[in-house]
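Thread: Newbie trying to understand structure tokens

Hi all, I'm a second-year student working on a class project, and my supervisor (Dr. K.) asked me to get a predicted structure for one chain before our next meeting. I've only ever worked with sequences, so writing a 3D structure as a token string is new to me. If someone could post the tokens and maybe explain what I'm looking at, I'd be very grateful. Here's the chain:
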Amino acid sequence: MRVGDVMTPHPFTVPWNASIVDAREVMSRRRIRHLLVTDDGGLPAGVVTDRDIRSSLPSPATSLSVWEINDRLERLTVGQVMTEALMTIGPDHDAGDRL
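---
Reply by user tm_fold:
Sure, no problem. This is what the structure looks like when written as tokens:
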């Protein structure tokens, strides 16, 4: 079986400079847990997961106000919390190949 037979041909993406609030909204609306992060040229730059976003949220024990929390979350970008180490493979490779 080829990678192209099992891959998602048009994955949902988010630009590296999008806020994590926007990325979280896309994930929630699409019911997905991972987003491909793209650079300014539209090329893959990383991946962000729901866990990455949850890990960047403030502790429930914070002394910040709701407004301060929302302001900080709006300024925190996907590029700051994404995983940059991507491994890629072409669609014509065997899906069972080990990298």
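A couple of things are worth pointing out once you decode it. The chain has five helices and three strands. The chain has a mean pLDDT of 89. Feel free to ask follow-ups in this thread.
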